[in-house]
Amino acid sequence: MKVKWLEQLLGDEWSITPAGGSTGEAYYAQKDGKRLFLKRNSSPFLAVLSAEGIVPKLVWTKRLENGDVITAQEWLEGRELSPEEMRHPRVAKLLSKIHHSSELLDMLMRISKHPLYPADILEDIRHNERIFEEIDPRMEIGQAIEYLTANLPYVHTDRHVVCHCDMNHNNWLLSDNDQLYLIDWDNAMVADPAMDLGMLLHWYIPREDWEDWLARYGLEESQNIYERMSWYAVAQSLAFIQWHRMRGDYEEAAQRIDALKQLMVRFNIIDL
Fold first, then answer.
1. How many other β-carbons are positioned within 10 Å of the β-carbon of residue 107?
2. Residue 60 is part of a domain; what is its CATH number?
3. Which domain, by its residues, includes 255?
4. CATH number where 161 lies
5. Which of 54, 55, 184, 251 has a CA-to-CA distance to 172 between 20 and 30 Å?
6. What was the pLDDT predicted at 32?
7. In 3D, which of 249, 235, 15, 228 has the Cα closest to residue 144?
8. Cβ–Cβ < 8 Å for 10, 29
9. Are residues 235 and 162 in the same domain?
10. Are 42 and 69 in contact (CB under 8 A)?
11. Of 133, 139, 166, nearest to 232 (Cα)?
12. pLDDT band for position 20 (50/70/90)?
């Protein structure tokens, strides 16, 4: 979206600057001490996320003549969590609140977000498998897909929740008034909670602390949850590699491939 369109929406007196991010559709706006975070076509259930205190307060929503929807949220001073801070009990508490929210689930289901099943994820990865063909033989890619295929029958749950689907520490915002938020909900899905738990625990929580972390989240550890978490961690790693390569972010994709290799070594899927 062109900044001049935002100037027409807000008025020339607002100072508007890009906010960065992968979509390039987010902006900061400031005028006379008032500060807003603006985004085009943000997640349609931003209002309930705001009401639940999961994202900064939604100030207003406006629809443009071309059908685009602009949302304005409070622009808060704060910072992203460090990788080490992901171990904090309040991260487990907020994620548990999200996964147990019937309001979030009802809203996402109403906007035609049907549950995402493991077979759907594997099918998408296979459908885009050609993206991996240009990678100079990286055996871990093929072995990862083989692992997902072989273990698909064991990844099952009857519980589906609202999943954020990107547990990267830079999506966790700690405001200067000590309020924790989880932001950037564009890829949210209704899915197995192990999708979020797998990435978060495998990348940020030492293995010896999993039992305590899951207890704070409100879940007892079990072989089944570990198997599901591992499956989703590998699947999401492959999906992120494909996404970055499709965008031409080859350096980031290469880093994701190295991270996938480390993950698979940890799971004893491959040896060093």
1. 21
2. 3.30.200.20
3. 80-266
4. 3.90.1200.10
5. 251
6. 82
7. 235
8. yes
9. yes
10. yes
11. 166
12. low
Asked if residues 69 and 40 have their Cβ atoms less than 8 Å apart, the reply is yes
Tell whether 70 and 85 lie within a shared domain.
no
Active site members:
166
Residues 61, 98 within the same domain: no
Torsion over CA: 180, 185, 187, 189 (sign): positive
Query: Which pair of structure tokens corresponds to residue 183?
Result: 């932001």
248: which 2 tokens? 């031409």
Taking the C-alpha atoms of residue 272 and residue 262, their distance in angstroms, rounded to an integer, is 9
Work out how many domains the chain is built from and give that number. Answer: 2
- For tokens 């309001």, the residue is 103
Average pLDDT over residues 41-66: 86
| pTM of the complete model beyond 0.85 | yes
**Tens of pLDDT, residues 141-186:** 888 999 999 999 999 999 999 999 999 999 999 999 999 999 989 8
Q: What single letter denotes the amino acid at residue 221?
A: E
Tokens representing 225 are 């949850």
